[in-house]
Amino acid sequence: MKKKITIIGSGFSSLSAACYLAKSGYQVNIYEKNSSPGGRARQLEKDGFTFDIGPSWYWMPDVFERFFNDFGKSVDDYYELERLDPGYQVYFGKNDSIYIGDHLEKIYNVFEGVEKGSAQKLKKFIRKASDNYKIAMNDLVYRPGISPLELITPETIKKLGYFFSNIKKEVTNEFKNPKLIQILQFPVLFLGAKPADTPAFYNFMNFADFGLGTWHPKNGMYSIVEAMVSLAKSLGVKIFLNSPVNKILLEKNKAIGIKIKNEIILSDIILSGADYHHTETLIPANFRAYSEAYWDKKVFAPSSLLFYIGIDKKVKNVSHHTLFFDVNFDSHASAIYDNAKWPDEPLFYANFPSISDPNMAPEGKETCFLLIPIAPGLEDSESLRKKYFDIVFNRLEKLTGQQLRNDILFKESFCVNDFISAYNSYKGNAYGMANTLFQTAFLRPKLKSKKVKNLFFSGQLTVPGPGVPPALISGKLVAGLIEKN
Ligand SMILES: Cc1cc2nc3c(=O)[nH]c(=O)nc-3n(C[C@H](O)[C@H](O)[C@H](O)COP(=O)(O)OP(=O)(O)OC[C@H]3O[C@@H](n4cnc5c(N)ncnc54)[C@H](O)[C@@H]3O)c2cc1C
Predict the structure, then answer these.
(1) Chain-wide mean pLDDT for the chain?
(2) Fewer CB within 10 Å, N side or C side of the chain?
(3) Alpha carbon distance 116, 85 (integer Å)
(4) Longest dimension (CA), the chain
(5) CA 419 to centroid of ligand 1, rounded, Å
């Protein structure tokens, strides 16, 4: 008889694991608390405007392709991808912005224009980042984080120095112009920690950025969720929405099922793609592998204050992805990581997907989402949201030289309290636990429970870490461990 697997949550890691497990012959049921699948990548549709609620940067297209190839499919079978040009635009002041183009040669030229001699330096930097990318993909990220030995290969030994240096040092050793330094430090923000706390090896994200490019799936990132749901269903996976799991049932130290409201569902294996910390609250305290003190000491990726805005006209002087780095990067980072507080002068990110994808807004209008990264666990109130909306919207208008406020058709916001209520997120984190040196690979919470048999975990609080591509990989890794169980 087919072994029965219950999966909690329908984020990318859960959907990925479900596909691999169903392909291997397990009977897989997913239970999701929300009314639509996709976890942090759900979609908001309002008055003809379409917003990706969470992720919007499609990086590392090779990881998505590799995922679909594992099922004899290709990305092209499910959604259309476009490489964005520019990949993104970064504002440093009024009428002062840099475009990151869709090819390395264009980017080398831009660098040279800002700092003489930097094109050659960037070529060298990207060559090393590209080597590290290959090593990361071949020797590191597809490992389940069970033992340090799995990281020791002839290739990784050669790169040991990179693990004991950090991104900030690597970048500032080579480049002097503050704008170029900020651009080169930007990709590691996806890993959730300060550049000074992120091992230099992660400069492979710079290759992902400049070398592999920024892509847009037609109709938005939710197309990936739809693709994975369609693949999962074709393999026999059943997805139950509006199904919040409130208990994992144990028999001695073995997981035997879940409870949803008053319904008991028995199964052979439980896999949770919900936040790790939350999942452990569904079992008695003596069976939890990690204490509250453990979680409290960890470096978490930021939470975010987000605004989803329908604008009644086209917005000028911005790109699909536009970063506003016109204030001090280090002060904002310090307000997230060193001394958690609302930043005095926030950096922010603006997303206008309807610039390259007309399907995402009514004709002549613009879909806009704004994101301010903040420390997890901060106080969240309507008045704070309003205060920060005014700060960033005024800056958006001033730096891009236009008035937009009277053209706002509607605006919705999402912040710490929503991350907690929508996803049971620890302290309202947006994208999990950061990849610092001491929170990498085998040093992260384990995919397999250390105390409860037949209980497994996936997603951004375990290996390999935050982000959509890592979530796909996490699902594959945990499915592999379950098959060996
Ligand atoms: C604002 C934002 C921007 C981001 N930007 C990017 C980006 O541009 N590019 C990128 O690659 N990544 C980005 N990320 C990160 C990326 O979205 C996540 O790392 C990834 O989607 C996490 O997937 P997951 O499977 O770990 O978990 P999740 O997506 O969190 O899925 C967990 C699921 O479990 C469900 N759940 C929780 N508790 C229960 C319960 N008790 N019962 C049933 N279900 C439950 C939740 O509702 C949720 O659906 C961003 C994230 C956010 C929030």
Answers:
(1) 96
(2) N
(3) 24
(4) 68
(5) 10
pLDDT above 90: percentage of residues in the chain:
93
What residue has token string 């831009």? 110
* DSSP track, 308-370: EEEESSPPPS--SEEEE--S-HHHHHHHHHTS-S--SS--EEEE-GGGT-GGGS-TT-EEEEE
Measure CA 191 to chain center.
8
Residue 341 dihedral angles phi and psi, to the nearest 5°: -165, 165
Distance 213 CA to ligand 1 centre (A): 23
Taking CA atoms only, the protein residue closest to ligand 1 atom 2 is 54
How far apart CA 81 and CA 58 sit, in angstroms, is 9
Task: Using the mean position of ligand 1's atoms as its centre, give its distance from the Cα of residue 308 in Å.
Answer: 18
Class (C level, CATH) for 4-39+56-80+219-297+433-484:
alpha beta
Delimit the CATH 3.50.50.60 region(s) of the chain. Answer: 4-39+56-80+219-297+433-484
For ligand 1, what atom is nearest to the CA of residue 15? 25
- ∠ at Cα 6 (5, 8), nearest 5°? 145
108 Cα to the center of ligand 1, angstroms: 34
Report how far residue 42's alpha carbon sits from residue 468's, in angstroms, rounded to the nearest whole number: 13
Percentage helix, strand, coil for the chain under 3-state DSSP, each rounded to 5 = 45, 20, 35
| pLDDT reading at 9 higher than 80 | yes
**How many angstroms separate the alpha carbon of residue 442 from the centre of ligand 1?**
22
Q: At residue 374, what is the residue type?
A: I
Which two three-digit tokens encode residue 396?
């958006």
CB-defined site of ligand 1, < 6 Å: 8-14, 31-34, 39-41, 54-57, 244-245, 273-274, 278, 304, 306, 371, 423-424, 430-432, 459-460, 466-468, 471
> Distance, CA 461 to ligand 1 centroid (Å)?
10
CA-39 nearest atom, ligand 1: 49
The answer, yes or no, to whether residue 316 has pLDDT greater than 80, is yes
